[in-house]
């Protein structure tokens, strides 16, 4: 079957390095400016060295209780309260989805797709992950182990609550990276399938050794340094009205510290490394206009997944899709594909997606449809 190559985009490593270098220079300039006329630039460098420390990570505490689930919260084994939302169908659910939000976002990120899935009989749950939304330690990183263990507990709780209903885990962007790491570590053993929506796999290999080294250096010297909330010319979606709403949402993380950004890169490294160990039936959704996750990074990750046929793995590439596929202007196609894939797991698992985006991607070698850098 012929495949369609995605248009090549400029390599992202150099751009990332330039942004990190610019941030470091701005930080040094502020220190140097404060020092001029009294202690001099050399002293400013000494101040920067004296401020060297390790990135702030707020991990899970020791397990002191069994994890619990209520209507509006999950209480983790260490006592942390993770706010929970759900969107239920009008009739008893045919399937349950546990949705993991992306970086800087929170459970609110599923207010658009979840009602659509409810119309197909799908009950969706989403919780605020540590450091995001109303979860503990806003703006601080918890680490891969903490996010995976929270996921493991949430899956077990929902499986126990809906034991006779198939459970699926969906991860968007950062949530996709957490789901990948969790799947390879057995955290999703009670799930029937995995759905990765623009998974965050732009790790150290993708941004390059220079950018990764600079970011690591900043995270270990000035972890408090706040980065930009966005980059000029880089849009995560074509839904401008959505971006305006999110810009006014106080629960969205803006200007993330450099140490939480470094934590995200480490998580993405963990996700890429986990790819060969993912054995669940998997649906991967990719936007052809996604400029946050480069083609090459996605292609390499897909190539590392275990070999599988269309009944076990399906990759869909949306010509007009961006990074925020579930909230783009053309998101209805994506919502419908997710609902269809879930509905046909037990009846016709090789059934093509309604949008045809998987037919474009091809059946057996999806990585070859993505342009290598």
Task: Provide a compact summary of the structure.
It is globular and about 55 Å long. By secondary structure, it is an alpha/beta fold.
**Can you tell me the CATH topology of the largest domain?**
Rossmann fold
Q: Element order, helices and strands? A: HHEEEEHEHEHEHHHHEHEHH
How would you characterize the largest beta sheet? Answer: 9 strands, mixed
Q: Got a strand count? A: 9
Average pLDDT score? 86
Shape by Cα distribution: globular
Query: Which residues form runs of ≥5 with pLDDT under 50?
Result: 1-14, 20-50, 362-373
**What value does the Rg take, in angstroms?**
21 Å
Features:
373 residues; alpha/beta; Rossmann fold; 2 domains; nine-stranded mixed sheet; 12 helices; 9 strands; 38% helix; globular; disordered N terminus; disordered C terminus
